[in-house]
Prior knowledge:
binds 2'-deoxycytidine-5'-monophosphate
Amino acid sequence: MKKITIAIDGFSSTGKSTLAKQLAKHLGYVYVDTGAMYRAVALFAMQKGYISSSSFDKQALINDIPNIKLHFEFNADLGFAEMFLNDVNVEKEIRTIEVSSFVSKVAEVSEVRAKLVEQQKEMGKNKAIVMDGRDIGTVVFPDAELKIFMTASAETRAQRRFDELQAKGDNVSYEDVLKNVQERDYIDTHRDDSPLVIADDAIEIDNSYLSREEQFAAVLELVEEITKTL
Length: 230
Ligand code: DC
């Protein structure tokens, strides 16, 4: 079967990564979670003291970009690639609510986006890739053979993220998670550089009421239709 590029975009906590992982595993493709890369840069900015709840020294972060090295390493036990920042595994640290609260601000910085987009394009140059994020179908792979745009209500998404954080023992309230989801939606859709928009040729999936299995089956059918015509 011919290899294609699959771009999955959408709001936070719409289940993009769940779908992307299922597809990559089934098709034998590489899966890349670009949100993890922005989260790792946010963690770097926090560690260096460039960002806090009261301030953001954007210029200091921009000056330090050459010292940010990101790579993924596949973990066979987990079934996906973990994020490394300057050779340290940060997969767990980047999923906290603190990182979530700063990441959209960091993702607004054009210099950060340019660096990450360049790396993402490089990872996809041989196709056979499923990449998820906010600008994959519009900026990273505008020629992707399949573009999916995922949506679900803010409340549904907040409940999902709340359940995930609770399961990890993170003591946050549902209200805080909902507020974070709504704030990130706003920043992601209103930033000047590569705002979250649906690509003209993307297929929109609202999964508020779809099971993982139903969603996976529907998208797999699309993949099979597309690869047949190539
Ligand atoms: O998918 P996520 O919630 O882990 O993404 C974290 C943040 O990174 C999100 O608020 C927006 C940003 N992001 C982005 O701007 N572009 C991408 N391609 C992926 C994520």
